[in-house]
Amino acid sequence: MRKPFIAGNWKMNNTVEESLKFAATLAVELKATGQIDVAIAPPFTALYSLGVAFTDTEFDLAAQNIFWEDSGAYTAEISGVFLKEVGCKYAIVGHSERRQYFGETDETVNKRAHAALKHDLIPILCVGETLEHREAGKTWNVIESQLEGGLKGIDLSSTTDFVIAYEPVWAIGTGKTASTAQAEEVHGLIRNYLNEASGKEIADRTRILYGGSVKPSNSRELLVQPNIDGALVGGAALDVVQFADIIRNAH
Ligand code: PEP
């Protein structure tokens, strides 16, 4: 019912040249994505070239962030107008590295999500607890308030698609993965939240991705969980063979 979705977040990695090499190898590794949506979020500098390389393929382009204004004196920000122009389909908002290092709050994340929708980009809203939160038994409180803040004013019934990524901060780039039980538990709670906030139809159709040290060796077990609809992959998405294996494991 929900089409699996594998998204690679390259963060601040890969030049234009490296991105094009990756795209060429990915096309050889994976002739077709089958019943799986696949997207890559490269650095902004590689969006255009990768978009061209993805023409006539089943791979989609995602932005790592989006600003809420369309243009103006906002040094280093990027607007939906530009992202749309280069062919983006998705925009990640609220990644924990943005929250941790660049002062993003639920309020700014929410403004970015609104901007994505305004430009017909599908937001991938990231939520997740730190180790301190988990150890203090506050995992759900944190995620619930990130969902509440991030989704404020957004009518999920008027959007055709909206993606949520559960990324426990302690599992990002650390090699530690949440156990399938830990991940599935939070995904189930997010699904319940959507059910209560927006109704069963929306809860049933919204894809919830897991992110946090996903690799070929753990992806199959995670991806078969009933409420895990795909993965947001960081480190392993830089390796084309591993990324292709994760996509294959999603079938
Ligand atoms: C991420 O950055 O979204 C991520 C999940 O990274 P990693 O796979 O490297 O943990």
* Molecular shape: globular
Number-wise, the strands total 8
Small-molecule components bound:
phosphoenolpyruvate
Q: What is the CATH architecture assignment?
A: Alpha-Beta Barrel
Give the rounded overall mean pLDDT: 96
| CATH fold topology | TIM Barrel
How does this model look, in words?
This protein is α/β, with parallel strands linked by helices and 251 residues long. The protein has a single domain, classed as Aldolase class I (TIM Barrel). The chain has an 8-stranded parallel beta barrel with strand order 1-2-3-4-5-6-7-8, surrounded by 6 helices. The mean pLDDT is 96. The site of phosphoenolpyruvate (PEP) has 13 residues, from strand 8. Phosphoenolpyruvate binds next to strand 8.
Question: What would a concise description of this structure say?
Answer:
With 251 residues, the protein is of the alpha/beta class. Helix content is 43%, strand content 16%.
List keywords for this structure.
binds phosphoenolpyruvate, 251 residues, TIM Barrel, 43% helix, 8-stranded parallel barrel, 11 helices, 16% strand, alpha/beta
